[in-house]
Amino acid sequence: MKGVNGKILEIDLTEQKVNVIKLGEEIYKKFLGGYGLGAWYLYTHMKKNVDPYSSDNILGIIPGMLNVTNYPMSGRFMAVSKSPLSNLYTDSNAGGHFGPKLMMSGYDGLFIKGISEKKIYIVIDHDEIYFESAEFLWGKDTKETEKILKEKYPNSEILSIGKAGERKSPIACIITDFGRALGRTGLGGVMGSKNLKAIVSKGNVKPELYDPDWVKRIIKSFSSAFKNEKFQYWHKYGTSNSTVRSTLNGDAPIKNWKGVAIDEMKIEDIEKLKGDEIIKDNLKSYACASCPVACGAIIRKNTRYGIVEGHRVEYEGASLFGTSLLNTDLDSIVYSFELCNRHGLDVISTAAVIGFMMEAYEEGIIKKEDLGFELKWGDPDAIVKSVELIANGEGFGKYMELGVKKLSEILNKNSDHFAIHVHGVELPAHDPRFMPSVGITYVTDPTPGRHTAGGLGFFEDTIPQPPFDPGIKFEFIKRYEYKNKGKYHAVMSNAEQVQNALGFCRFRRTVPEYATMPYPEMIEAATGLKFDKYELYKTGERIQNMRMIFNVREGWTYEENKIPGRAIGIPPLESGPLKGITVDLDLMVREYFEAMGWDIKTGHPTKEKLKELGIYDIYIKYL
Length: 623
Hints:
By secondary structure, the chain is an alpha+beta fold. The protein contains 27 helices and 17 strands. The chain starts with 6 loop residues before the first strand and ends with a helix.
C-alpha cells in the first residue's frame, strides 16, 4: 500500500516510552485515516469509563489519509479523545499545516497516554522522538509558544495549548498556525492534564504515492473550479461575510436563543459587521495545506483594547461575540476572538458562556459584586472583561471556564432552562428553527452540539450534494417538511465521515463542480486501495458507528441528548423571520435512527448493523 506510512506512534508520558505500531492494509480499508483511524484506536486501546483527565485517557492526533497528495483542500487533520466537557467520545477537525507535517515525519497517527511528571513538550523528527522541558513555556500564550518553538526548530509545525489548557479547562482547545484550532469539548484541557505544553513535528519526507502521474491528472482536472466566482468569494471573505445575513434571517441565535435581531437592534448597527468592514484590516491571505482558495486572512487591527495581529475573525466568532450578545462593536469582537486564540479557548463555548451569564445577570442570579462589573446585553467592554476572566481563570472566570452546563449547576438558581447545550456542549451559531436538520446533528452525532458533523443542515431548500456519489438519488429538501428527512440525513452524515477521514475541507461543497468528488479514484491513485462507491459509503457508515459505540460503552443513551426547547421553538418566537416555528425534531430523529439501523429509543447501533459493517466482533471484544 502506498500514500501512507503504514505505522502510528504511541507515546506513554508516564513512562516516557515510545512505541511504533505497524498497521495492516485492512485497517486503512476499514477506517481510512483521520478520526476513522482515531475512533478505532480509542475504542480498542482505552478502558471504559476513564476520567478524561486521568493517565488512562488517550489524546490522538491523526492526519487525513490523503494529507500528502496535494489534492486541493485535502490538508485537514483531526484529534480524538474522551471529552472532559461531555464525558463522551470527542473529535475535532482543523486546518493549518500540522497534519501533512506529521505524515512527513513518518506517522499516520500519534496517540498519547499517561501524565508526565514534569511539564514537557514532544519533538517528533522521523525516528527521533524526544521530550524537552516546557517549564520556560508554561504560562505563555499559544502565539508566544509557537514563535519560540518555530525559531528553535526551523521548518517545523507546532501544536500548543495556552493558559486555559494548562488549567485543564473543559472548554480549552489546541492551537496551531497561530490561530487554527482543534476546538470544542476540551481537547486543550486533556493535553494540559498530561503536563504537555506542545508537540513539534519536523518531518520532510512524503510517503510515496501509488501513481503520481494519475494524482497529477486528477489535480489538473479540478483547476477550472477554483476560478469559479464562488471560490473567489470565499477567498475574499471566508465566512466573515455571513454575520449580517445570518443575523437577519434567523440563523444566528440572539440573546441566548430567546431574542429576535430586528426587535433588539437597528439594521444599520448590524451592518457594521458586514464582510467589507471586517476585511479592511487584512494584511495577507491565509491558506491551509493544499488549499488553492485561501479563505483565511491575517489581519492587523489597532483596537481600543490593544493591537491585534492574527487570524481574521470568522462567522462563529463575529456572530457569537457580536450580534448574539447584541454587540456590534468590531473592536471588542476582534479582540475577544484573538484572546481565545492566544489563551487556547474554544470561541463557541466561551461566547455561549457569556450569553448565559448575561441572562443570569438580567435575571438577578449574578450580580455586579460577583463579577466586579455590570454584564448587560450589548456592552462591548463587559464582553472583553468576561473573556479576560475566563482566559485567566480569575474571579468568577474559574466557574465560567467550566462551560454552561457545569456553571448552571454551580449557580443552582433555576438557570438550567436557559443553559443552552446538548450533553454539556454549547451550541454554535446555527439555529434549528432556521435549519431544522442541523438539530438532528446536534442530538444524534457521537459528538453532540456540532454544526460541522455532517448531515442535511446546510442543504435545506436545495437538492443535497454529497461529498462523493454514494449511489443514492436525492430529492429536493424542503426546509419545514420533516417527514423523510431522516433517511437523507443518514446518507449525508455517513458520506461526511469519508470526507473527514480523508482530510478534505467541507468548504469545497460551495462550488457545484467541486461539491461531489471522485473519492474512489482519488484514493486508488494515491494509495492503490480500490473502493467502489458503495464500499466507500459503507466505510463512512462504519466510521460513524465506530464513533458511536465508544459512547454506548460509556453508557450513553439518546435520552441524555435532549436539546433545550428554545433551540427548536418551544415555545415558538412571537416575531421575526422564525415567528411561529416549532421543529418536529423527534420525527426526524426517529427516521434517522431507523435509516442508520440504530435502536429508535436508545440511539444504540444494533447487533445486526454492526455485523453488517464487520465491527461487531470489535464491539464485543473491547466492551
